[in-house]
Write a structure and sequence with these properties.
By secondary structure, the protein is of the alpha+beta class. It has helices at 73-81, 89-100, and strands at 54-59, 109-115. Bound molecules: zinc ion.
């Protein structure tokens, strides 16, 4: 996977202190978080070197389904999992829910780690 300078994966296992690790709040040529100089190596306690964590986000929202007979739970499950309905349609659905929820999805979204990126069991 290509990793550009501003890729969300740029800091994965990156221990070298780079210029972007300095912050405008303290422009002194050092990592803002662990105080190591640019060109050096981040301390083990620094928050910059990262790992990839796989997270399963779940959303629970209301949708409509026909009242007519035959449109039972299996039909709804089939519609959203195996029909021509595209998962990308969820984006516009979530935008609608967001507008109806004062601009916040916190009440319908939850997250759970499924791979912690450390090679150990998820707790
Ligand atoms: Zn650092």
């Amino acid at each position: 996977m290509p990793q550009g300078k501003f890729s969300r994966f740029h800091d994965v296992n990156r221990w070298a202190v780079e210029p972007q690790d300095e912050r405008p709040a303290r422009p002194d040529g050092r990592c803002f978080y662990c105080d190591e100089p640019i060109g050096g190596k981040h301390k083990k306690t620094c928050v910059i070197p990262s790992r990839i964590v796989r997270v399963k986000f779940s959303v629970e929202v209301e949708v409509t389904a026909p009242l007519a007979e035959g449109f039972d739970d299996d039909w709804v499950n089939h519609h959203y999992n195996e029909s021509s309905w595209c998962g990308s349609n969820l984006i516009s659905l979530l935008e609608q829910v967001e507008q109806e929820s004062d601009g916040c999805l916190c009440s319908v979204v939850s997250a759970k780690v499924v791979d912690n990126g450390r090679g150990s069991d998820v707790q």
